[in-house]
Automatic annotation (TrEMBL):
Name the UniProt record assigns to this protein: Flagellar basal-body rod protein FlgG
Major place of residence: other
Family, similarity comment: Belongs to the flagella basal body rod proteins family.
Annotated ranges, domain Flagellar hook protein FlgE/F/G-like D1: 96-159
Highest taxon of source: Bacteria
PROSITE patterns: FLAGELLA_BB_ROD
Length: 261
């Protein structure tokens, strides 16, 4: 029976939904993480009697026809781009992005990647890098004798020394915006890569061209809503159970058929 395969597509879809929710919950404490949502569409339809077909016997036109749906298929796992809450850390090199935009980093391959994880560090050479050691672009080097670092809302980085009262400008971070940020490819480690769907990065100063501003001493929390995730988890579980019941019912029907003499 077709119902077995149709119900199997439903179980597969609900399983994918649970896996997406599981990933969201696993990342509910990941800096700058945005929740994902699995989206689905109905599969093809078998046309048993097409609507509008003329009945050969009396010439009437079928008003609706007979179409049998063949299940469901996944179409997308969409990122919900919501601003996460900001948590104060007090660290000089922690910067949160308030609004749109990503920090650009340089990978070991020389390619660029983008992140909203502002938990920055200082390398042995004094460069400002990510937690995984990727250099933030454009490069900013902190002198070894710097007493403290200040990063303002537009991304300007100042160093303060013991022998001077005024700060020395070391460089300025820029932010990258994308026409379709949902089209970025997640690489793991809080990094994203541009794709044809996202379009090229539009680099600009923080606070301009629709980009957000930077706040030093803060990190952006994950935007995962635990209550919503649990609610959707329950819905997905019920959907999976109902599809399983369909398979069970079809199995009983097939068993009854084999007993007919």
């Amino acid at each position: 029976m077709r119902a077995l395969k149709i119900a199997a597509t439903g179980m597969s879809a609900q399983q994918m939904r649970v896996e997406t929710i599981s990933n969201n919950l696993a990342n509910m404490n990941t800096t700058g993480y945005n929740a994902r949502r699995a989206e689905f569409a109905d599969l093809h339809y078998q046309q048993m009697a097409r609507a509008g077909t003329v009945n050969a016997s009396d010439g009437t036109v079928l008003p609706t026809g007979v179409q049998l749906g063949l299940g469901v298929r996944p179409t997308a796992v969409t990122v919900h781009l919501a601003q996460g809450a900001l948590s104060a850390t007090g660290n000089d090199l922690d910067v949160a992005i308030e609004g749109n935009g990503y920090l650009e980093v340089t990978l070991p391959s020389g390619l660029s990647a983008y992140t909203r994880d502002g938990g920055l560090k200082r390398s042995a050479e004094g460069l400002i890098v990510t937690s995984d050691g990727h250099t933030v672009s454009p490069e900013v080097t902190i002198p070894s004798d710097a007493r403290s670092i200040s990063i303002n809302a537009t991304g300007e980085v100042y160093a303060y020394f013991d022998d001077t009262a005024e700060g020395q400008l070391l460089g300025q971070f820029v932010l990258a915006g994308f026409t379709n940020a949902k089209g970025l490819e997640a690489m793991g480690s809080n990094l994203f890569a541009e794709t044809e769907a996202s379009g090229p990065p539009l680099l600009s100063e923080a606070g301009s061209d629709g980009l957000g501003t930077l706040r030093q001493g803060y990190l952006e929390d994950s935007s995962v809503d635990a209550v919503r995730e649990v609610t959707e988890l329950i819905e997905a579980q019920r959907g999976y159970e109902m599809n399983a019941k369909v398979i069970s019912a079809v199995d009983q029907m097939m068993g009854a058929t084999t007993q007919v003499r």
